[in-house]
Amino acid sequence: MAFRTREMLRYAIRSEDNIKRLSGMQEALVERGVGLSYEELQIKAQLSQSQAHRINIERAYTNARNNYKSVYSVDLTEAQIDSLILPSLPQKNMPPTLDEAVAKALDSSPALIELQQALETKKGDLEVRESAMYPKIEAVAEATNKENDQGYAGTRSEQRYGVQVSYNLFSGYRDVDNIRAAKSDITSVRKSLLDRRRTVEERVRNAWNDILTLQKTIALYENQANITWAYLELVKKKKAMGGEVGITEIITGERDYINATSSKVTSEIEHITAAYMLLNQMGLITPDVVEN
Description:
Layout: H1 2-23, H2 38-72, H3 78-82, H4 98-108, H5 110-131, E1 136-147, E2 155-166, H6 174-240, H7 247-281
Helix pairs in contact: 1-2, 1-7, 2-7, 4-6, 5-6, 6-7
């Protein structure tokens, strides 16, 4: 999140500085009764809008850094944030279809494996507790060697063999209560496992949907940036040929181009994030998967 908001903040600052540079205005405040032209008011309105946008991004950026500190107990410096590298899209590890992604996640999700192991442990506890309700049969063997026993010289050996049966006739219903508790624990873990499976499948489907829609979004923002850049080229060419071009046309074109580029970059970050969220649900996050 810190990486994403940092990129958004860079473009927000760039947009605001661009309006100031093109218009020569450094202040967006307007006092009532002060006579300003229609164009000046438009420029100030756009400057005010860009400043409000930049402040909102700064707030999100600070919140993202606070969240990082809360999780990792480390306060990132600006230099550390600038050194962050966005991993590339792990294309070779992506599943070809949604159904395969769901099947893999339900089979290999770390969250599900953890609960499945807990369930097996609870079943083992139940078997141990149930065994206390049945007779216990043990084979007993004993061997003794005696030397010079009772004044007789030499060694005498004695062996005893037998079968020992023990049975807990009554324990104050403690064994019954233990079995009930073990069965209750198994039921609870099974319910948690079922809920977790639903959650994992939902997250896989959401991540898959994010990947597909963000691919389209990235293409649209790139097209928008290309269109606004072509518009700017035409406006600048018109101005160079002596045509009448208002400063607001240039400012609007520059702003739209920067916004489209910013949106494309943030969508690319979200696209890569969604891909790794999908792989995480599938249990495929390993160091070799994180490609730079």
